[in-house]
Structures are given as C-alpha cells and as structure tokens.
Amino acid sequence: xxxxxxxxxxxxxxxxxxxxxxxxxxxxxxxxxxxxxxxxxxxxxxxxxxxxxxxxxxxxxxxxxxxxxxxxxxxxxxxxxxxxxxxxxxxxxxxxxxxxxxxxxxxxxxxxxxxxxxxxxxxxxxxxxxxxxxxxxxxxxxxxxxxxxxxxxxxxxxxxxxxxxxxxxxxxxxxxxxxxxxxxxxxxxxxxxxxxxxxxxxxxxxxxxxxxxxxxxxxxxxxxxxxxxxxxxxxxxxxxxxxxxxxxxxxxxxxxxxxxxxxxxxxxxxxxxxxxxxxxxxxxxxxxxxxxxxxxxxxxxxxxxxxxxxxxxxxxxxxxxxxxxxxxxxxxxxxxx
Length: 337
What we know:
By secondary structure, this protein is mostly beta strands. Helices cover 2% and strands 58% of the residues.
C-alpha cells in the first residue's frame, strides 16, 4: 500500500561554499556531512514539591561538520582564512635515492643550498653540490653499486597557503544537497540546506593513515542573518525539500480571496481572485497557481470568470463563483451594482 512507503536521506551531502557571490569551493566526495541544532534551556521550578512549571528555551545554535575524503588545498584555505598563492617556491626532496658512479651521483632537481646525505652506514653528512651533482668520494663510496639518500631544498611551481596566528577563518554561504530515496520508488527527490552565513571555526583535522585515503574534517557555526522576509526575523538556515514525483501540491482545503467581490458597472468592473492552499498545522499556507484551479460562475449573466481567476461584471445582481483545486472547493460571492 502507498501508506507503507517511506522516504530516506541516503549517503552524504555534496556542498558548495560561496564567499560573497563567488563560488570558492565544492565538495562532492564526502565521508560525512552533519548538522547539529542545539538550544539552551532554563527550567523554572515552583510550588509544592518544587515541581517544574515552565521551561524557557533560548540560545539556539546551528553547527555543521564537513568531512571530505578527497584532498583539496581549498579546504584548508577556507578553514585558515588564507588565500592560495601560485608561483615558484622552495620545497624539499626527502630521502631521494641517489645511485653513485665513481662516488658521484646526480640529483633529480637543482638543489638550493647544501645537500644533507645519509650514507649507507646510517651517518649524515652535508655536501655542497656542483652542477646538480654530489661528490661522495671523500667518504669512501667509490665502488660500483654504491648509493646514498639525499634530502635537500629545490625550487618549483606550487600552490601554497600560509597558516598564521592572525588570519580568521572564512565566512560565506554554505549549500548542502542530499538525495531523497523511497523504499519502493528509489530516488524521489532531494533536500537542500542553505546556511546564508557559515563561519568555520578555524579548526581542521587531516588524517594521514596507512590503510586509507587522507580525509579533511572542517567544523563551523551558522551566524544569524536578517531574513528576506522581516516577519520571520533572523535565520540560521533554510531547509528545502524537492519532490520529483509530485506534480501538484497536496492540500486539505483551499481559501479563495477575497471572499466577497463587489463590482461597479460604472467603475471597477473586474477583479482577480487568488487561491491559498492549507496543508495542516505544520505547514504555512501556500499560494496556488490560478491556472491549476477551476473557476465556475453559477450566474454568468451577472458575472463571468475565466481560467485565470479574473471575474468580470456583466449585469447588476449577485453570483457565486466556485473554485476547485484537486477536488477541494471554496466559494466566492460576487455582487454587481
């Protein structure tokens, strides 16, 4: 039966992070994406037995954690507040294997400064290179097959960020998107969460493990911003659900407005109706498309109505307009003078 079907949010969410109106970073290979909403509580106990008579809720907060399986320098730039730079920079070769011929070995890159060399006996020496080569004959490495390991700086193109003590984490708009599946129908839609002002807390964790890919974990909080609609006050996030299987909005009842239309043959001879759908106590009223509704006048000789809800006066008298949407109806009285 249809009533036995259930919807689930599966896998983890993709995310996009905007700084201003510019897309700074996306994450589509995530291990975990989670939201946590917490509210402080102040209890009031009074009366006989010091019973709980009221519980005051305040200080709501929203936190988000992003854990990405893939490696992107942008993740660290977001958390540290450091912009990525590109250009030539000093980097290191660590323990490069160098084969020796008559005690001389060629390095794979042009070193900057001296080269630290680990000899076969485990001791370390410092050698000044010449033309990208190191001479280890002074250490008795003159036999065929001798080798050593070299650690040194060299110069190459790289992307880099700087983690300093002063820069604050980035703040921007975070968008999360996750698939919605049904146990009988498969994928049926998606849920999208938008946090208009998301500030990372500056803490991040890079897991380097021998048995899996490196992951990066970022954490942050939503900052309250003034909503587009002043009546809703300040907001932390918007959660929107998209259903790909439903083409019409399901409502319990409708309300056509205005309930009474007064038309004057000598002045305002027409008016347009609007239709509101009511879904239940947990839902706000939703404005329905007039094109999806049916409008019928019981006395077209007094007032007519078209498919877009426009009522037009014809002659003095009264008429009743019946509005129907998905089998649910309401009535509007039209008075023409």
